[in-house]
Design brief:
Layout lengths: L1 H16 L1 H21 L6 H33 L4 H4 L5 H30 L8 H25 L3 H18 L11 H7 L3 H14 L8 H20 L16 H19 L1 H15 L3 E9 L5 E10 L2 E6 L12 E4 L3 E5 L1 E6 L19 H11 L2 E6 L4 H13 L6 E4 L3 E2 L15 H10 L1 E2 L4 H14 L4 E5 L2 E2 L3 E2 L5 H13 L4 E5 L2 H10 L3 E3 L9 H10 L2 E3 L2 H12 L8 H6 L2 H12 L7 H20 L20 H12 L3 H7 L2 H6 L17 E5 L12 E6 L2 E2 L12
Parallel strand pairs: 1-4, 1-5, 6-7, 7-8, 9-10, 9-11, 11-14, 14-15, 15-16
Antiparallel strand pairs: 1-2, 2-3, 5-17, 12-13, 17-18, 18-19
Helix pairs in contact: 1-5, 2-3, 3-5, 3-6, 3-7, 3-9, 5-6, 5-10, 6-9, 6-10, 9-12, 10-11, 16-17, 18-19, 20-23
């Protein structure tokens, strides 16, 4: 042990005198530290400062390993420093080991310095997992010091060493993320980067700093770095040479590949799975959401009915940090980007409480287009583009819905937040079982388990609700609807079974929604204690007493005027609803064109007056619910004909206002009321301190003109200012 300690002490003294070591280990990273901090506006974003630390740590580790260890060892051999130890009892082991340990000891002050400067100069709090970060960095330092030593072992001169080091150093410097964010690179470049050890070190530090991950999440990277360290240590000792006259064969230089073998294997794996490419995107999104931004001089619709005529909203780390009734005069003290929102209305993101993502809302002339696997994600992107930041799926395939919810929730894909009700509870021969005949043969069988639940007893109903709770659904939906002659007749779900579905949902803590088609259905749903009535009554006017009971039990009403308008337009051949500018922008254009052609071919199929009477009945029910103080929520039933995913909530509110509902009531229904029914009002639906910074900025005042909700200036989602132009291309390489 004494030879090891003695040589470690000697190596530390030599390192302290070596200007190149001091430059690449200390000064060089510090220069980048302050440059990157300014470029990334680190004062406004703790995640940006964390990214800066990750970047300069990798630069420092690379310099410490390749130049501080590798070139230093070559120079010691070239200048005959090592020859002096040849006659001593010290073998190659202490020299190689001391190079690793001394480099680590000398590097730790740099790591501490980076965090101290971040705390003092840029006000970044010390990460809660600082110890894990420190351990991970130590493993990385040892691995790259060992890489430097293996380079020194296989080169025959300082010139050869310089060439080999640059062949490894420069790609790792520029492709690992240490100098340019890896998430902005082409996918093929990101894939190539997965073969470089520095990429795993950088992404590990970055994920720990920004996403708060620990050592377990980076276990594979740690294992690869440790294997590299051990292999390089063994090979370095075996190939160690004391004098420059001792030469090594070219074949022996292939040991460098053996040392890098763990990363070649991991690179092949990553090229197939692209896990790290996806993780880099998620971490970059997390960093973007942590910026500090002050939105100044906006009119603020809070969501719960109150309005701030002229105020400001401060966003920090994806949350609303403060809401100002009067814009602050001194904005510099906030260390935040300032956005002047004069003339704009800031309000919570809109919420559509009734969508079917699996249906397009129109028709395609080419049947193959229905099977596009990217359509569900694109529809969520269309919602977010339109300022609809959350949607509730009230009848889609279970597994794809949960997977899509996970993908959006993780930040892997950028789209509206998804709340999934899961399969629809109905009975054999009940609605919407009749839709299965339109499904392709290949998926019709799966639809019976993914799309519907048809319990035959109360016990089975309760068990199926429990299973869906375990699967992770956000709500439960059931259908009480016998239909009627003009639209089709259905078997109606047994009320005893239906009551069991509702009671078990309450017991499991899940919100419930009930599709109704008549006043009798509404009455049974109220008695069972559903949380929301979907559609109301298509065949008659709902009695005032039922609305009074809904108010007393706090049952929400979702009139879905959009789908009823769509039914009328389909029967009368009116495709005007497809010409709205915002809908034209989110398309898809082929869907709009094909649907328009189909609708116009159906002109004058039924008398217009009869359809107007049908639609007027839905308006009457909505106004009665509003008059009785029933909680209103906005759902469009998107996916049905002429209700195309995108700016659905805006059109629903426009129909409400046309029917006589005040704009303020419609706006609250689309924000706070909807969020409360989703049991997410502690995060969304309100412009209040502590809520998610998820809101939209509108050109104009929707309280004066509800169509202003379609004039979107910008969308902020969990603190991230969305580049809406990229939403429909985010999955393309």
């Amino acid at each position: 042990m004494r030879p090891y300690l003695a040589y470690i002490a000697s190596t530390l003294r030599l390192m302290g005198r070596d200007r190149s070591v001091l430059f690449f280990s200390y000064l060089f990273p510090l220069v980048f530290y302050f440059i990157f901090a300014q470029l990334f506006d680190a004062r406004q974003n703790p995640s940006a400062m964390a990214q800066v630390i990750a970047m300069v740590l990798i630069i420092a580790v690379l310099g410490n390993g390749f130049f501080g260890a590798g070139m230093r060892a070559v120079q010691d051999r070239e200048t005959n420093v090592l020859r002096r130890f040849k006659v001593t009892p010290i073998g190659a082991g202490p020299i190689v080991v001391s190079a690793l340990v001394a480099g680590l000891v000398g590097f730790l002050p740099v790591v501490i310095l980076f965090f101290v400067l971040a705390r003092i100069v840029y006000r970044m709090p010390l990460p809660h997992n600082f110890a894990a970060i420190l351990i991970f960095v130590c493993v990385g330092v040892l691995a790259f010091r060992s890489l430097g030593m293996i380079i020194a072992a296989v080169v025959n001169s300082a010139q050869e060493g310089g060439i080999l080091i640059q062949l490894l150093y420069l790609p790792m410097l520029f492709l690992s993320g240490a100098t340019f964010p890896i998430s902005v690179m082409s996918v093929w470049v990101q894939t190539l980067a997965q073969f470089l050890p520095a990429t795993y070190l950088f992404q590990g530090v970055q994920s720990m700093m920004i996403a708060g991950q620990g050592l377990r999440a980076n276990a594979m990277s740690i294992l690869a770095l440790l294997i590299t360290t051990v292999v390089a240590l063994v090979v370095g000792i075996k190939l160690f040479r004391w004098e420059k006259e001792e030469k090594i064969s070219n074949r022996s230089k292939l040991w460098v590949l053996a040392v890098l073998a763990p990363f070649l294997i991991m690179g092949i794996y990553q090229a197939k799975t692209r896990e790290n490419v996806v993780n880099a995107k998620i971490i970059a999104r997390e960093a973007a959401r942590n910026r500090s931004v002050l939105f100044q001089n906006a009119k603020i619709f809070v969501g719960n009915g109150s309005v701030i005529a002229h105020g400001s909203v401060l966003v920090r780390r994806g949350k609303i940090a403060e809401v100002f009734g009067t814009p602050p005069a001194d904005t510099k003290s906030f260390n935040a980007d300032v956005v002047d929102a004069s003339g704009e209305t800031l309000m919570p993101g809109l919420i559509d409480m009734h969508v079917h993502l699996g249906a397009p809302g129109g028709v395609y002339k080419t049947p193959a287009k229905y099977a596009d696997p990217g359509l569900l994600k694109r529809r969520l992107a269309a919602y977010l583009y339109s300022g609809v930041t959350a949607v509730r799926s009230t009848g889609d395939f279970l597994d794809p819905s949960l997977e899509l919810r996970k993908e959006v929730g993780s930040g892997k894909y950028l789209g509206a937040q998804l709340f999934a009700c899961g399969p629809i509870f109905t009975t054999q021969g009940g609605h919407p079982e009749e839709l299965l005949k339109y499904f392709p043969d290949s998926i019709r069988k799966a639809a019976t388990t993914q799309f519907l639940r048809e319990p035959e007893s109360q016990a089975q109903a309760r068990a199926q609700v429990d299973q869906l709770k375990h699967a992770g659904v956000d709500c439960i939906k059931a259908v009480l609807d016998a239909g009627y002659a003009d639209w089709g007749l259905f078997n109606r779900l047994n009320t005893g079974i239906y009551d069991s579905v509702m009671s078990e949902a309450r017991r499991d803590g899940l919100p419930s929604a009930t599709h109704t088609g008549s006043s009798d259905d509404v009455k049974d749903a109220i008695e069972a204690g559903t949380d929301s009535i979907e559609h109301g009554s298509m065949v008659n006017v709902i009695a005032d007493a039922l609305f009074e009971e809904m108010k007393r039990k706090n049952i929400a009403y979702d009139p879905t005027l959009s789908v009823f308008e769509g039914l009328v337009d389909m029967k009368t051949g009116n495709a005007e609803v497809l010409n709205r500018p915002l809908l034209q922008r989110v398309g898809p254009m082929d869907l709009l064109d094909d649907t328009r052609s189909m609708v116009q071919s159906t002109k004058k199929r039924v008398p217009v007056e009869g359809m107007k009477s049908f639609y007027s009945r839905q308006q009457q029910n909505l106004l009665a619910a509003c008059r009785h103080g029933v909680t209103l929520i906005t759902g469009s039933d998107a996916g049905n004909m002429l209700v195309i995913h995108g700016p659905t909530v805006q059109h629903e509110m426009e129909l409400w206002v046309e029917s006589g509902v005040p704009a303020a009531v419609a706006l609250q229904a689309a924000t706070y009321n909807a969020a409360k029914l989703l049991r997410a009002d502690n995060r969304i639906g309100l412009i209040q301190q502590g809520r998610d910074a998820t809101f939209i900025l509108l050109d104009g005042d929707p309280l004066e003109d509800i169509t202003a909700t379609e004039h979107i200036h910008s969308v902020v989602f969990s603190g991230e200012q969305i580049d809406r132009s990229d939403l429909f291309t985010q999955d393309k390489d």
